[in-house]
Sequence to fold (224 residues):
Amino acid sequence: MKALLKKLNLPYKDESIYKTAMTHSSFAHENNVEKNEKLEFLGDAVIQLLMSDYLYNEDLADEGQMTKKRAQAVCEEALVKYADKIKLYEYMLLGNGEIQKGPNASMIADAFEALFGAVYLDLGFNEASKLFDMVIKPNLKLVWGIKDYKSTLQEYIQSGDKRNISYHIIHETGPSHNKYFEIAVKLDQTITLGVGSGKSKKEAEQNAAQDALKKGNYDAKKII
Fold:
């Protein structure tokens, strides 16, 4: 873990929290240690705030444009791109079965978020901001072309009569370290617009939104 901390030039206080950030639930289950899910939850919020601050200071045209760009920049695909730049997968702690397969996109994105959660807890917001400037900001050019179906669907729905969409888990299968989700996107909590599945909730939600856009024939040439 020291190699990663040195690479990122982090003046860490508690090395153990970074080890937890890299600990996938499969490793945690086999070794009876804490998994990284709580740090992932925290890190997601930290990255969202840092990205919002960055886009606000870029003085973009309006809230809608900022929301769309933020969604692109913090989606699972984008997080994996940032993580790849620091070869984060080399430092992840996986269970025996996962080692054979290697970490998937969801695992890598979760570890990246957990890293930001660890930095925030150990060193505070300013150091998390420095990490953002080092790892995320220089690589934003890689993510602006990512298709974010959730934002596109939200934008389409709210361009009409301001109705709401929400995402609901239909099925959840597999052990805690290897979940598979099926999620429905609904209009006003009742009307199912689309269904999608994936190895993470984020992936399943994106696929559900894409399914809704396809079924609705929402200007497919521009959106899909």
Notes: The chain has two domains: 2-142, 149-223. The first helix runs from residue 2 to 7.
